[in-house]
## 1
Amino acid sequence: MTGQLAGRRVLVTRAAHQAGKLSDGLRALGVEPVEVPVLEIRAPENPEPLDRALRQLDTYNWLILTSANTVRVLVERVAALGISFSESQLPNIAAVGAATAVEARNAGFAIAVVPETYVAESLVACLADRVAGKKALLARAEIARDVIPDALRSAGAEVDVVNAYRNVLPESAPALLRAALVAGVDAATFTSSSSVTHLAEAARQAGIAFPFAGVPAVSMGPITSATLRELGWEAAAEANPSDLSGLIAAVRLVLC
C-alpha cells in the first residue's frame, strides 16, 4: 500500500499546531502531506465573559467542551487567572469527541460523557436526559453552530455560551496555497467546516477558483461534508468514524 501511494500529495488544512498527527498518518501511507494551515487560534476579542464564567465554574452543573482547542484555551486562561479547582468544585464535563476527551484528561479533567459519534447532534442526544433543570457552560469557538445550546435549552437546561477563541485565516495561507497547487495535490482534507470556509477565502485572496478542479475532497464528517456541498464541492469520501483515523482511511480509499 505504501509503495502504491508513493508520490501522492495531499493537502492538510489544519492549524499548524494540530497538523502533525494527520501529516504523520498520511506519511505512514506513503503519502506526502502538503500543509497549508488555514486556521489560526487567537483569543476572543473580549475575554471577559470567558474569564467571568471560569471564576464561577463551581456554579455550573455541566461544562461542555467542543474541541481540543477549547480545552487548551481553558487551561491557559485558568492558569493566567490564578484559579485552582478541587475535584469537588468541577462540574460534570462532556466532550464532543475522543480527541477532545483525551486533551481534557491530559489536562487533569474527568470526563463524564463522550458520544459514540463525534458530532454536536450526538453529544446533544447523550445529554438531553441529564440536563433538565441544570446549569451548563458551553465554551466554544467564536463562530459556531447553535445546535448544542438550542437543543439543551429545549431539554430544560440553562445554558451560558462563551467564546473561548477565534479561528482566523493566517496571512501566509494564500501564498502557501498557491505554491501547493502549482506543485499539484491529489486530494484535500478537511477536519471542520471552518477549514472549508477558510480555504475558500484563502483561494479567493490568491485568485484561485474554488473548488479546485480535479482534486477530490476528503471530509472529517457529515457537517464538514455539508459545508463543502454548500460551496459546490461534493466530498469524495467521508471519515467513518469522524476522527483522524477515519479521515486517513478515507484518504486511502480515495487515492487507491
Note: The beta strands are 9-12, 32-35, 40-42, 62-65, 92-95, 135-141, 158-168, 187-190, 217-219, 235-238.
## 2
Amino acid sequence: MKHYLVIAGNIGVGKSTLVQVMHERLGWEPFYEAVVENPYLADFYADMPRWAFQSQMFFLTRRLHAHHQLMTRPGSVIQDRSVYEDAEIFARNLFLQKRMSARDYATYTDLYAVLKLFLPPPQLVVYLQASVDTLLKRIALRGRAYEKNIERAYLEQLNSLYDEWIQNFRLAPVLTVPADRLDFVRHNPDLELILDKVQRKLRGDQYVLFE
C-alpha cells in the first residue's frame, strides 16, 4: 500500500533527519524542501512589506510543484514540511508581523484555500514538537551560518503558530512527537518507538500516543 506522510515542525526540530532515517529504514522516497533560489529574496530582505507577497507566492508555487510530483510517485513518500505550513505558519507570521499587507494576505489566503481543495492530503502528519530551548540547541549543533542569527522571539512566534495550526488541522490524522525528550538521532530506542507508533497510526490505530 502506498503511503504519503508529512514531517512537520519548527526550524531545527529534526524534520530532515527523521525523513532521511525513515527513508533508510522503511525504503520510502524522501521529499525535502527544494533548494531553489527565490528571485524575490534579496528584494524581500531589503523591503519586506513591499516584497513579502511576491516572495511567498514564489514559495507557494514551488510547494505546489513538489506536492504534484510526490503524488505521481508509485511508492510511499515522506515529505519534509508541507504546503500547509508554508501558508498557515510562515505567510501568516509575515502578516502578523505587519510585513505583509492585509490586502496581499487576503489574496494569498484566498488562492491557497482554493488550491487546498484540489490537493490530496497526506495520510498522516508527524508533528515534531519542541521547546525553543531545544530548537536553539539543535540549530547551534548543526552550525548553519544563515541560521546563526535566528532570534528566540521568532522561534517562539512560530511555535505558537505551529501549535495553533496542529490543533485545528483536520485534513489528516496527526501524531505529535515530544521532541524535547525523544532524541531519535542519538538514541535508537527513541527512533524505534517513533517508527512503531507511525506504522501503528498508519494501520488505523486511533489511540497511538506518547506517554
Note: The first helix runs from residue 15 to 26.
